Amino acid sequence: METTATPKYTFKDFASDQEVRWCPGCDDYVILRSMQKALPEMGLKKEDVVFISGIGCSSRFPYYMNTYGMHSIHGRAPAIASGVKLANPGLSVWIITGDGDSMAIGGNHFIHVLRRNLDLNIILFNNEIYGLTKGQFSPTSLVGQKTKSSPYGNTQPPFLPGELAIGAQARFFARIGGNTPKEMTDMFIKAEKFKGTSLIEVLQNCPIFNDGCFSKYTDKAVREDKQLFVEHGKPMIFGKERNQGMVLNGLKLEVVTLGENGITEADLLVHDAEEQDPTLHQMLVRSEYPLVTGIIRSFPDVTFEERVDELTAAVKAGSSFTKTDDLFFSGETYEVK
Amino acid sequence: MITTKTKQKQEVLEAVVVRFVGDSGDGMQLTGTQFSDTSAMFGNDIATFPNYPAEIRAPQGSLYGVSGFQVHIGSVEISAPGENVDLLVAMNPAGLKTNLHAVKPGHSVIVDIDAFSKKNLEKAQYESNPLEDGSLENYHVIEVAMTSLTKEALKEVEGLDNKSITRSKNMFALGMVYWMYNRSTDHTIEFFNKKFKSKPALIEANTKVLNAGFYFAETLELIPNSYTVAPAKMAAGTYRIVMGNTATAWGFLAAAEKSGLELFLGSYPITPASDILHELVKHKHFGVKALQAEDEIAGITSAIGAAFAGDLAITTTSGPGLALKGEALGLAMILELPLVVVDVQRGGPSTGLPTKTEQSDLLQALYGRNGESPVIIIAASTPANCFNYAFEAAKLAIEHMTPVILLTDGYIANGSAPWKIQSVSEMPEIKTRLIKEAKEKWNPYDRDEKTLARDWAIPGTFGLEHRVGGLEKDKETGQVSYIPENHEYMTSVRAEKVKRVENYIPKLKTEFTDEGDLLVIGWGGTYGTLYSSVKELRQEGYSSVGLAHFNYINPLPKNTEEVLKRFKHIVVCELNTGQFASVLRMNFHGIEFLQYNKVQGLPFGNSELIEEFKKIMK
Fold this sequence. Notes:
The complex is a heterodimer of chains A (337) and B (618). With 337 residues, chain A is α/β, with parallel strands linked by helices. Chain A folds into 2 domains: 11-234 and 271-310, Rossmann fold, CATH 3.40.50; 237-269, no CATH class. Chain A has helices at 28-38, 77-87, 99-105, 107-116, 161-167, 181-193, 215-218, 220-226, 279-286, 304-317, 324-328; strands at residues 49-53, 68-71, 92-98, 121-126, 172-177, 198-203, 227-230, 237-238, 244-249, 252-257, 291-298, 333-336. With 618 residues, chain B is of the alpha/beta class. Mean pLDDT of chain B is 94; it is low at 1-7. Helices cover 35% and strands 22% of the residues of chain B. Chain B folds into 3 domains: 9-229, Pyruvate-ferredoxin oxidoreductase, PFOR, domain III (Pyruvate-ferredoxin Oxidoreductase, domain 3, 3-Layer(aba) Sandwich), CATH 3.40.920.10; 240-426, Rossmann fold (3-Layer(aba) Sandwich); 510-617, Rossmann fold (3-Layer(aba) Sandwich), CATH 3.40.50. Chains A and B meet through strand 1, strand 2, helix 2, helix 4 and helix 10 of A and helix 1, strand 9, helix 9, helix 11 and helix 12 of B.
C-alpha cells in the first residue's frame, strides 16, 4: 500500500450506488447520513474503512456505504471484525449491529469483543424489537410489551445495553437519540479517535413495529427536559431552562434544581468519562430520569493489538527463527544415510 | 538378585510392538514417546498409538482410567502401530487386565508387583491375583518391585517429595525396556536436562531411576534375552519425529511462507485438535496471529474476517466444533474466500468419545450446511503427511478462492512417525489471486476462466471498495440479487468451481497392482493399517489384491471410475458405518461396493482386515 495524502471527501463519496431500502421514517436513515457526514472528518482513506454487520434491519448498512464491507451472519460481526482488525490493524473497522443481533444470538461475541478491547467501533441500533423478522420482542423489549411473539405481554426482563457492556469491561460507551444527527456525527468521530473498542447505542425508533418506543425521551418537545447529555469535564446540567442538575446522594443519583435550597452549579457532579472505576458510569446508564445520553464512559486503556504487538516483538527479539526451515531443522533431527 | 553383570545373548528382530500401560497419571504417554523417539534416532522406522481416557486424572487403579502408549519399531517399513504386542509393560492390575488380550502368547509382560495390592486388584475387578492364580502361564511374566526399587534408588537424592519419587517409576520401566532392546539412554537423559532445567533434583532423580532400571534389567536373570532391531532402510535425508497435529501446524507455516501471506488461526480448544493451536501459538516469531476465541463460531468467523482482509486464515476443530461452524462455513463458501477448516475427527455423535478415533465426520464435512454449499474436502493419511495435506489445503483454498475442509483424525493426529523434513524451498508454488489495482469495470465476482476462482481484493486496496455478504449475489456485479435464474446460475457456478479442482489434483493411484480380484479402498487415517494388511495378504500369496487410498474426497480424482472398474470386487474399509461407501455409490452407479466398518473408537487391526479380505476372495 502506497502512502498518499488523504483526499478531501464529502459525504457523497461514502454513499454507494445501492438504493436504500429501509422503511420510510426509520431512524436508520439518520444514522446512515450521520456516518457519511462523519467519515470525511476522520482523516481516513476510504479504502481503509470497513463496515461489518450481522443480520437484521441495521445490518443492511454496509451495502449503502461506499467502503469495504461485509453483511455477514446473525450475531457474528464482532468476531469477523476482530479477524479483519487483527489481519490488518491499519484499518478502521466498524461493527453494525442491532439489539437482537448483539444481545441475543450474538451475546457471546458482544461481551468478549468488549473484554478484549481491540480498536474497533460498534454502533448498536437499539429499537427494542425484531424488525426484519416482523415484530417479535428482543432482549431489550420491556416487560409487558405486546409483540407478535408476546401477544399477552413480554415476560422476559430486558438488558440495558450500557449496563451489560460496562459489565463486560467496555472502555467506551455512549448513548444517543436516533433523531439528533449533529451530536451523532460528532460522537462517531470521537468513537473513531478512541483507541479501544467503542460502543455507541443509538436509541432508534422503528416506525413500523415499535413506533414511539423512545419518544418520551427523544421527542423534540421533551428531550431537553428528559435527557441529560453528558460531556467530559462539564457539570451535569439539563432542562430547557438549564436549571436541573445531578448530585450524588449517598449511593443514589438525585436530580436537584439550581437556585433551590441554595444549590449552585458548584454542587453538581462533574462528568468524568475517563474514570477507570465504572460505578458512577453504571449509575448514569441506569438512570431513567433524566435519561443520560452522550459519552458516558471513555476510559483509555491498553488495546488488545498493543498487547499482541508487544508480545510478538518480545518473542521475535528472543528467537533465532526467521524462516520456517529454521524451525523444521532445529532440535532433535537425525540423519539417514 | 544377581549383582554381577552377565553377558546376555542377543536376538535380532525385524520389528517389535511395545505397549506401556498404567494409570492416567503414571506418565505412560511420556514413557512411550521417549522410547519411540530414541528408536527413531537409532534409525528404526516407527509408528505410535497413544490411547488414553478423556479424564485427566481418572480415579487411580480404575479400569477406565488406564492410559496406554503403543510403539511399533522396525528394521523394515512400519506403516501402522501394530496389532500384536510383543512386550507389555503394565504399571498396575487395571492396565494388565485391559491390555493382556493384545499380547501374543509366549511373549513378555513386565509388571510392577508393588501395584498389585488387594485394593488395586479389587479396583481392576480381579477375583484373584493373576500373578498367583496361574492365569498368566502362557506369558513370560517379568515381576519387578518397581515402586520400591525406585524409592531405593532415590533414597539419597535430596529435595524430593514422596509424590515425585513414586511418579518417576515410569522411568525405571523405560530403563528396563531400553536395555531389552539395546537402546541408549542418552536421548532421554538429554530430555531431562532440558525439561527440568530449573529443577536439578528432578534431573538427578529421573536419570538415577532410568539408569537403575537399565542396570536392573541387565543384571536380571528373569530376562533371558536382549533384542536388537536394526535400523530400517529409509530414504536418505534429515529426519525428525512428528506428531500428526504438529505436522498439520507446520504445513500451514510452510504455506504461509510460500504464499507470502500472514497466517491467522481462529480456534477454540477441543480434543483432539487443540495441539494444532498449542503449536501455532508458539510461532509468533513468524508473525503467526492466533486468536483463542470465545467459542467455535468465533473461531471460524474471526478467520473469515482475516481471510477477507488478506491473511491465510485457518480454524481448527473436531466434530462437535465443525457442527457449530456450519453456518459460518456456508458464509465463507458464498463469499468465496479462502479458508481452511481442520477437523481432527473423534468418536461421535455429540460429545461421543473425545479421545478416541473415528472417521464419522465425512458426511458432515460434505453436507453439514444449509443450502447448496459444496467445499473442497481432503484428508491426510499418515502423521507425517498431515504436513503435505495442510499445505495442500491452504494452496487449494488460496488458488481456488473457496473454503477447504482438511480431515485428519485422533489416530494420526496423536500418532507420531519419522518425517523426512521438507524444506519450504521444495514445496510447490502458491499463487494468490490478490489484486492491487482497479481495472476498469472491475467487479468483485469476476472469475478466472479456467478455475472460476474470483479475485481477492482486500480492504486497504485503493479503488476496489466493495461489499460482500451472505445474501445471493448478482453474477455480474456481486450486488444483492433475488432474481430466480441468477440464483440458479450462481449455485451452479459455485459447484462447478469446486468440481474443476479435479483438474488440479493428482490422479488416484493403486498400490501393489493395477487390476485384479479385490480392490481395498480406504481414505484418511486408516492408510497405514490397510497398507500393511494388503501387503501381508499378498505375502501369503494373494497377489490379485490392490489398495486404493483416497486423500481427495471432494472432488474425487478424475480417474476414480476407471480404477474401480479394473477390479472384480471392491471393499470400502472405514471407521464409520459406511459413509465413503455411500459417497462412492452415489457417484458411480453399477459398481458393487462391499463394506468393512468398525465403530469402536479404535483403529483397524491387521488380522480382522485380512480375515475379511480372504472371505471376499473365497
